[in-house]
Amino acid sequence: MPEASPSIVRLRAFLEELDVQSSTLKRDPRGQTWLPPEIRSLVESDPECRAELGRFVDRELELFDSVRQRNDPMFAKDVLNATHSVEIAGSGLDPRVRSWILGLFYALATIAAYTTLAPLFGLSERGSVLAQARAALGLASEATSPSAWGLAAVGAAVALALLLAFMPCRRPSSRA
To answer: How far is it, in rounded angstroms, from Cα 10 to Cα 52?
Structure first.
């Protein structure tokens, strides 16, 4: 591509910084009213600059026409309607049922994390998962009687889970 002449470079540099309204460009596409005198004389004396100015005006008018939209008197209402909270799946459930479902999946996630991470911490060397569960419950002693501490720990965990599942909760009102 051939190098642009210095006058074209100067004109392009000026036009890049220029901000002219579309109505002014439509009314005066040759720049008689909105171009400064030195740039106007440059455009009038050089046919390449005249063609460059014509391309600039055409592109600017095309740009203005492509983004023009008609006025929408309901715009504010549409925006406010679009910002209303979205109904989340399961949010209409009874809070207790929802808590049970969430608790179940938290428990499943905990079990999955344990089975994945147990070998990293050396917990899988003690035997199978069933043997580990029996040991945690205190059922793995020689006398096969459950340990009081193991049963107390499991009972406390179950009581805490039930308390959290059935704890009444207040939902914030979405209506103002």
So the answer is: 11
Domain that includes residue 131, residue range:
95-166
Domain count, the chain: 2
Contacts of 139 (CB under 8 A, 6+ apart): 146, 147, 150
DSSP-assigned letter for residue 118: T
Last-in-domain residue among 67, 84, 103: 67
Q: What is the pLDDT of residues 107-152, one digit of tens each?
A: 888 878 877 776 676 666 555 656 666 666 666 655 444 556 666 7
Question: How far apart, in whole angstroms, are the C-alpha atoms of residue 135 and residue 153?
Answer: 12
pTM surpassing 0.70?
no
Residue 170 is classified by DSSP as P
Residues 6+ apart with CB under 8 A from 153: 136
What single letter denotes the amino acid at residue 20?
V
